[in-house]
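Shall we go through a protein fold together, starting from nothing but its sequence? Label the sequence line and the structure token line clearly, so we can match residues to local backbone shapes. Would you write everything just below, so we can both look at the same thing?
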Amino acid sequence: MYTTVNEDGVLNNYATEPKMYYAQHPAIWEQRQYVLQGAVAAIFVSALVVFAFAVS
């Protein structure tokens, strides 16, 4: 932890910052998984909306 002291004697604590890195582009199989997850989520939300209209 990084600590500084100002002229009044007040301590200021700063967290250590993590090392930065660049994100990697997802692989083809990861992209396909994201498409599948989006399709399942869309079907789920659509089913909820249809169910809500059916109940009301």
